[in-house]
């Protein structure tokens, strides 16, 4: 038994030499990182030389700076109503912000005072504070102050409103035709693209003569024509026509209250446009 165990555990000279070589290799792998760190020496950076090299590179390849990095020495006087996209970028405004500003002015938007620049989406307070001292609003670019009656004005007259360009004029006329005319200038906020900001810009330049609105005879109007009314969707128009077929002509706005899907809010909006003959 002992002889068998001894024979099993015994090693030949060749096997012994192989095991010694393997152990040596393992040891070398383990100590290699420590030897590398001991032999390697970090090179000290010459900060002065590095800064000199960077300055030389910037001088050879000047790049415009954006935002807060823009040197105040690089700024210049400008009118935000007429400044080109290229000049906006020279002032440190990104290409995207410049496009937003140019789109705003192209649609009839106007900066009346320096503070109006803060209304531009994406323009930071830091950008505004940096640019504000250089803003000059040219009075020569302002449109003549007018008060336009919305229900009678054509496209040319509407564009005389400061802040209304050709696109907005077309939208106002299109909505006015569907509506039958404006009974209040606040209805301009229902026109696509006229938000609170745009409305505040133009509200003092417009007025409304509600006597010019086009009335709807609710007892004779067809489905297709009534469908044009912005306040009535397909289901409401269908309900009005069907109720009339089943119950006869409407005599007053109170009859429309019997239609469940037309609430008080809708009735208040459409009542000025209805006649019951």
TrEMBL record:
For this UniProt record, the keywords arranged alphabetically read as follows: Membrane, Transmembrane, Transmembrane helix
Which Gene3D superfamilies does the UniProt entry name for this protein?
A: AF1531-like domain
The organism's place on the tree of life at top rank: Bacteria
Task: Locate the transmembrane regions by residue number.
Answer: 20-39
Database matches in InterPro entries = Endo/Exo/Phosphatase_dom_1 (IPR051675), RuvA_2-like (IPR010994)
Provide the protein name. Helix-hairpin-helix domain-containing protein
């Amino acid at each position: 038994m002992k002889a068998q165990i001894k024979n099993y555990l015994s090693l030949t000279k060749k096997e012994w030499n192989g095991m010694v070589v393997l152990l040596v290799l393992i040891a070398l792998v383990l100590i290699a990182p420590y030897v590398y760190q001991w032999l390697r020496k970090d090179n000290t950076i010459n900060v002065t030389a590095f800064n000199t090299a960077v300055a030389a590179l910037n001088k050879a390849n000047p790049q415009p700076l954006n935002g807060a990095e823009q040197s105040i020495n690089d700024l210049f006087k400008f009118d935000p109503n007429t400044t080109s996209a290229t000049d906006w970028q020279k002032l440190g405004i990104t290409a995207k912000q410049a496009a937003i500003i140019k789109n705003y002015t192209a649609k009839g938007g106007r900066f009346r005072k320096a503070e109006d620049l803060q209304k531009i989406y994406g323009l930071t307070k830091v950008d505004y504070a940096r640019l504000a001292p250089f803003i000059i609003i040219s009075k020569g670019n302002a449109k003549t102050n007018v008060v336009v009656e919305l229900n009678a004005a054509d496209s040319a007259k509407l564009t005389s409103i400061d802040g209304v360009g050709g696109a907005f004029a077309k939208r106002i006329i299109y909505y006015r035709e569907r509506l039958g005319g404006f009974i209040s200038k606040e209805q301009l906020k229902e026109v696509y693209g006229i938000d609170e900001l745009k409305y505040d810009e133009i509200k003092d330049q417009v007025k409304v003569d509600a006597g010019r609105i086009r009335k709807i005879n609710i007892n004779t109007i067809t489905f297709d024509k009534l469908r044009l009314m912005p306040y009535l969707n397909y289901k409401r128009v269908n309900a009005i026509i069907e109720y009339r077929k089943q119950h006869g002509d409407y005599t007053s706005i109170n009859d429309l209250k019997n239609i469940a899907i037309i609430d008080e809010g809708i009735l208040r909006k459409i009542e000025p446009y209805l006649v019951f003959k």
